[in-house]
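Researcher: We plan to redesign the surface later, but first we want a full-length starting point. Tokens attached.
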């Protein structure tokens, strides 16, 4: 896509931004081109937030911590990334071509090259400024990317404003079912056609063993997982249906759900 084409597309995407009453572009657009809807309110959208969830939201705010995470992940987790990108590719292929997809949380843009193959534009959204600055510095894909700092609990996009939402590796950092429900309701609200959502399955071998271990030792277990049944119920409540739910490996607790509307 030419630079002119990219800029035109960006203007179209900006139309889907949802500003709080009385506020507009000037209140949120930073000089470096990142839209910042956080303004010190990282827990926005949730009346109550678990301490572990809150702590995780602060983890990659600096460029240094985001860089060290992304470089380390690239070095250590190549096999995992290969498996995940193969699943993501197959799920996205069923919905291509798509105009705009929300990649939330984007992290440092690990999955953007895969998503970019199936869409005309990506909205990269994360709560961490460090991660978004890393995306801007390092992303080399040809489709336009709009970077937004916002919480998944309060996505500043209009209803049905993107073809699909992709939410990978966030839900297992949320320590209550209410938080997962709020996140899913937002992802489904902004998506017209589909949501791809990764989660840790409570009924996986790994998590079943973990539960037993805690029961035997008698220590309480605060869980970050969810069952496929619980996910299905929440999904239905907000107008979606689970169409596929592959695990990333036979002994892996992580699954990718394809939710269609
Ligand atoms: C493990 S990374 C995953 C990034 C990317 N999806 C991937 O698979 O490489 C999780 C990201 O979630 C972001 N995050 C944490 N809490 C969030 C929230 N409430 N809303 C949006 N992003 C959040 C973190 O800043 C971090 O970049």
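Model: Full-length starting sequence:
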């Amino acid at each position: 896509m030419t630079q002119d084409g990219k800029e035109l597309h960006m203007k179209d995407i900006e139309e889907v931004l949802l500003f709080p009453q009385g506020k507009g572009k000037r209140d949120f657009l930073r000089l470096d081109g990142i839209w910042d809807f956080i303004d010190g309110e990282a827990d926005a959208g949730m009346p109550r937030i678990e301490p572990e969830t809150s702590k995780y939201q602060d983890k990659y705010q600096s460029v240094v911590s985001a860089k060290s995470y992304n470089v380390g992940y690239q070095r250590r987790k190549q096999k995992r990334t290969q498996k995940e990108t193969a699943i993501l590719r197959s799920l996205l292929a069923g919905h291509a071509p798509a105009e705009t997809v929300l990649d939330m949380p984007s992290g440092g843009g690990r999955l953007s090259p895969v998503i970019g193959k199936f869409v005309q534009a990506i909205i990269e959204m994360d709560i961490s400024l460090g991660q978004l600055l890393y995306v801007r510095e390092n992303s080399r894909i040809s489709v336009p990317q709009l970077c937004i700092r916002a919480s998944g609990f309060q996505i500043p996009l209009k209803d049905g404003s993107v073809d699909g939402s992709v939410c990978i590796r966030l839900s297992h950092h949320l320590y209550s079912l209410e938080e997962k429900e709020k996140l899913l309701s937002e992802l489904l609200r902004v998506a017209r056609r589909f949501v791809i959502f990764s989660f840790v399955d409570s009924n996986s071998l790994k998590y079943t063993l973990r539960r037993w271990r805690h029961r035997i030792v008698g220590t309480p277990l605060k869980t970050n997982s969810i069952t496929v049944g619980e996910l299905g119920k929440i999904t239905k409540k907000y107008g979606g249906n689970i169409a596929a739910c592959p695990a990333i490996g036979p002994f892996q607790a992580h699954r990718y759900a394809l939710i269609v509307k």
